[in-house]
Structures
1.
Amino acid sequence: MSEAEEKQSWLNRTVLGVGLTSLFSDWSHETATAVLPAFLAAIGAGPAWLGAIEGVADGLSSFAKLIAGHYTDRLKTRKPLAVFGYAFTAFCTASFGLASHAYQVLVGRAGAWLGRGVRSPARKALLAADVPPQAYGRAFGLERLMDTLGAVFGPLTALWLLEATGHSYRKVFFWTLLPGLVAVACFWLLVRERPIAARSKRSFLLGLEALPVPFRRLLVGVGVFGAGDFSHSLLILYASRMLAPAHGVSAAASLAVGLYTLHNVFYAGSAYASGWLSDRIPQRKLVLAAGYALAGVTAILLRMGTHSLSLLAVIFILAGLYLGTEEALEDSLSAELVPPEQHGLAFGTLAAVNAVGDFVSSLLVGSLWSAFNVQTAFAASAMLFFAGAVLILRLGTHS
């Protein structure tokens, strides 16, 4: 197959449709997320409410991904479920503009994240079904790239809208319906539904048991790595504290946000670059293992407690690189290890394992930092990262 023919075979309307959908959907809810804390404060709700809203929403989303993944594999067509999920998220996000009490925001956010959970396994299964296996890395990497661009556009749009509307939070929330519905249209008009020969009729537990052994080993590696994979918002706190003595608290905070923007740029680029690389080498697992090992190096550098702006920039770049690699390669390797008729449950289970990892890592790293010091916290992360890399390397050989 020539290079032109190969490009044509994977960069099709479904890949473009899923990518554009991810861009516009993330643009929508990241715009809302950027102003949500200030809006809650304006209606008299404190940080406890924000924590409750995010915690309930994340928990519901993870549960929905697992269950929706199971049922996605039993449906004759997956596309309507994904379209419903995107539309439900768009309307629930815009509903913040009607809220006057924190509990109403909680209901809206929970609904939006429930929609995200429902659509996620179906979206990934549809993407994998319309792409040749040798191009999984590029297809999933491009989707992550587009999603990250939406996350960059969202906060910038929120700032612009606040200025343009005289700091009307409600108008910002209503505006999110526009990119949200564009996302729905992109998915509905562009994404193709490829027929799957057999549909699973197993119960949920039997479906889990039927997942291939190599995939279950992948989940163990993902879980071990995830237990140390701290929220990257911690990097902003870390940089702010390290830069404050030399630059002052206010300037340090601004520099930390600038570093995080740099992090996001490399995050977006590495998602596609690592996927492209994984399609070019004999074993895709090597790229994921390298990403996990890079995370270990990042954690070791964080242990140094550096006050150097240039070294902090390197740390943020490395963090962005491994995050993009992790997300693109976990999805593409899962698609490779699991038969198409089980893709929905596989992606839902992967998301659930990642959610448990997020919960454990938040408790572990935050607790160690508070109880001991930053060196102990990131030493624990580094050990889990390298352990995860070893587990990935020990997966069965797959081309």
2.
Amino acid sequence: MIDLHAHTTFSDGSYNVLELLNEAQKNKLSLISITDHNTIQAHFELLNPNIRNKFEGAIITGIEITTTYKGETIEILGYGFDIDKMQHFLNDNVLTFEEKQLKEYELIKKQYKKIGVIFDEKNIQFDPKVESSRIAFVHEIKKYSQNYKFFLNQESITTNTGFTRNEVYNPKSPLYVDESSLFPSLEKTIEMIHQSGGLAFLAHTFAYSSNISNDLLNIINNYDLDGLECFYTTFTAEQTKYLIHVCKEKNMYMCGGSDFHGSRKKNHNLGTGHGNLHIDENEVSDWITNYIPNFIQKKSLTKK
């Protein structure tokens, strides 16, 4: 069992690196990748053998970099890069988690004041080093029934992910906020991964608004992506089947993972997602063993 999409406390997960490795060991995973948002600090921590040796399986370098496409916020997964080269690009092009939360807070506040959303700034409290400004905002604005008219989707009132994906990141929503100024462009994001020696995959296509899935072929045809995340916790069997078909038709690589965040994302269990996630090792072993063997720690993934 493998999982190529997991987060630690270096971004927005609730498990630190050691705790995540212990979870992977307990669940008997053979290969993992830590893909924190816009940071690779976990991979520098893994250089410590006292931490790394807690997990007997293989670990491949990973990251989830935030960018935008036609105004909508999306993510690109990078795998198999040199961590020193990647850190150089991150220093020059990517905001730290804290910097991003503070700037995002100001963008949301300005936009929501402009359109007449009711909120009291004194009630919006969050630690920008570890907490999301978006979540702090939605907890405040949903207190006032007068704000419900702004929500495009009722799910957005009950779930943090719904608010993020359906409202803040969705250009069709009245609560949309253009965050393109906070992130490197899609072209630059892919370039950073490639120049660091890695491969670039579009993360969880169907987790975004339908704008992205409907435009998937245009994204593939116009940007130098290496693959797609085909196996994901919330995907239906039909969605996974479609993405596998696209990858085979376009000669692209496949990856997959639970998007594990510990207690901060329910039912995204490491390796199994909601309980039935299955990532076919044969679909990912070729690009891992053939393209980036030097960036796998401990042991190599072998075909069944």
3.
Amino acid sequence: MKLNLGCGYAYLPGWVNLDSDPACRPDVLAQAWDLPFGAACAEQARALQLAEHLGFFKTKYFLSECWRVLAPGGRLLLETPDIEKTFRTFLGGDRGAREAALGWVYGSETDGMGHRYCFPGELLAELLAGAGFSAAQEEAFDYQPGRPALRFSAVKKEGEGGALNAALRRRLLDAGLPCFASEVHSAGQEAMIAAILAAHGSPEKVLEQALCSARIAFEYFTLAGENESKESPFAAACERLAGWGLQARMAAVLLAEAGPGRDFGGAYDAALAFGRAALAAASAGAPLPAGPDPEGGAPPVFSRLAAEEWFSRANVLRSRGNLPSGG
């Protein structure tokens, strides 16, 4: 099988043409970052002028999904605007060239045609390698006059890193956990995924990541233990913490501790200490610690940036009487 991903109106006979826009009548109506295909089912995939429409975080899932559905040795062809050459054109061009360059950077204002993120070649090559593809062959060409582009040809290589990355992200997609609507939450999840992949084989280190998201940690442990005869105690601890609402309870401690005279940093440290006590209790099968009742709308990811953003917004609402005043 050959996949033409984000096909638009460039329909290719003999390929499975996939797009998220029903108007172009694709063979498969789906998102390129959430592919409805089985593992290792395709020998080729192409995505021409697609990644810039997805954004940074969805592109990471798109690449992991490409790795998952391609057979070993399968080839991925990507094309995307050459953002660096376009910037040089903008800086050195006349008014017409500058207008054309801006249109190539940002895309069209037609629905679905705007560009969310333009990738320098070095970054896209790095993301391909991180997703489990061989060193990408890069080629510069003109997509249209005044629209410089890059073409990458990469090959799926077998290995535990690419397999774990693809399997974990597939789990998160199936569980509805990616937070694409929030850049801060997505960034927190990406930092957590990177830490989990780096700590693979050390469950105690992965368990620490439950402070950021008990649900994501649970998905990792159930994935890692799916061939075991009995449930992992780490999975059981994360499932208990997720059902208890660990992140919401940590946010409640953050708000309660940030009274008069207390800065965010001190309150954040108190919330982390509460979370670590909960981790220890859940791991030991002991009662979970008492704390303030969770507030509504707490962040699903308790990274420092996500916690700080939520804290700032919660304080505004609290000052208007829309949240309890805390401790």
